Amino acid sequence: MKAQFAYIMNNLIHNIGEYIVDGAPLKCSMQADAGNIQKFTYKGREIISKPAMTEEMSVLQLPKNRTENACGQTFANIEDTAGGLMDEMLVTLMEDKGKKKEINITSFGNCKWIEKDNITKIEEVVENIFRVLKGIYYKGRPHFTREEIAEIVIEMLEQGKGTCYCYMVLNNKWENLPTGYDFAEESYHYELPCIGFDGNTYMQFNDKEGINLMSMLFCRHGGIICAKESGQEQSQTEEMEDGIGIELYTQKDFYYLVDVVSGEANTYDGMVAVAYEVLNRCRINGKTIEEVVTSGAYTGYSAEQFGIVPEDGIAKNAVLAVLTGEVDNPIGDIQYHFGKQEGFDLWCEADKCSNVIVIGEGPYRNVFYEPYGAVHNEKEQLTEDAVIIYDNTNKKWLFDGEVIGNANIQ
């Protein structure tokens, strides 16, 4: 029973370690129930707040021009905190000053704080907005009068945006938790699986810490905002099809493979072959993709590039094709490869090799081989059975495709 509980809870931790992306659905601890109606008076008029909620109002919205995309997704960071009417007003003022700011959160409907604080007059809502804008954003120089704010508040309530939109005052950063808990080991650890912590720190997006399902954003009126889902699930289904992020492979596996193939090869075919080589090592040696890629065997792997997918899409497409089985394995059970090194021939010992396959095109090729130590790219003294694959003197590849195996040496 204890083992089953640990398994369930660690799977939960696996999920909450996912980073949040554009379009992630959010929730707030102070949002009123659906259908809640709040009434106010203003200069003898009755003003009713009956939110007309849409899905877009309560999801995380990221700037359209954000450049750092991974697997077709845009990741949020701790500074994506602009929300509600007050930040909309700030947007107007910043645009007047030649700056630009975009809203990340619109509204959660009506706010419980209104009822808790027994606010029944529009003037009370207006005074709160005026005080916050004057004291925090404008340093004693308000750009909106109380009458202007009242008109805007009434208009927004009549549009169905709710009192949350009018009353929201968010902290300027999301809060990230420092550790996860391993229920099997009954101890805290610093690395979450999937797209979560990277060592002791969070991954960076646009030079800021990313946020995940454990992250929280506080509103000054008692609300605690967090994501209901990471937003990755739909994109994973569309992009990765069956198997990835569900049973066979995780999105973390995807990122490790993208990182290593983009550093080890320059062509689509070469990247496919490198990805299959990694999977061969996993299967034959009983290792995970992370263990194989980070073992030090691949000089093309860069921890700093983990989670960043090259914009040309070649590495992404190659890895997705491999993980979904869309493309056949071109190298069989081979576990090793070399690229050419400047100043050296690339050659193999024919009597020692069981398989040698050249994959790539033009100057960009990789040599996949078995067993280890049978191919050389930094050794000048050739053996008697040497077969030169890349001729450094003439800067020319002499082979393409299978060199040793079922085919004969050409």
Low-confidence stretches: 3-15, 181-200, 235-247, 406-410
Structural class: alpha+beta
Radius of gyration: 29 Å
Helix content: 25-40%
Shape: rod-shaped
Mean pLDDT, nearest integer?
Answer: 80
Per DSSP E runs of 2 or more residues, the count of β-strands stands at: 21
Properties at a glance:
about 400 residues; 11 helices; 4-stranded antiparallel β-sheet; alpha+beta; single chain; disordered N terminus
Question: Could you explain how this protein is built, in words?
Answer:
The longest helix is centred in the C-terminal third of the chain and has 18 residues, at 268-285. The chain has helices at residues 2-16, 84-96, 112-116, 122-137, 146-158, 162-167, 232-240, 251-264, 268-285, 289-293, 314-323, and strands at 26-28, 38-42, 45-49, 69-70, 73-74, 180-182, 187-189, 197-198, 201-202, 204-205, 208-209, 217-218, 224-227, 336-338, 346-349, 355-361, 364-370, 375-376, 386-391, 396-397, 401-404. A hairpin with a 2-residue loop joins strand 10 and strand 11 (208-209). With 410 residues, the protein is an alpha+beta fold. The chain contains 11 helices and 21 strands. Helix 4 packs across helix 5 (146-158) and helix 8 (251-264) packs across helix 9.
What is the element layout, followed by pairings?
Layout: H1 2-16, E1 26-28, E2 38-42, E3 45-49, E4 69-70, E5 73-74, H2 84-96, H3 112-116, H4 122-137, H5 146-158, H6 162-167, E6 180-182, E7 187-189, E8 197-198, E9 201-202, E10 204-205, E11 208-209, E12 217-218, E13 224-227, H7 232-240, H8 251-264, H9 268-285, H10 289-293, H11 314-323, E14 336-338, E15 346-349, E16 355-361, E17 364-370, E18 375-376, E19 386-391, E20 396-397, E21 401-404
Antiparallel strand pairs: 1-13, 2-3, 4-5, 6-7, 8-9, 10-11, 12-13, 14-17, 15-18, 15-19, 16-17, 16-21, 19-20
Helix pairs in contact: 4-5, 8-9, 8-11, 9-11
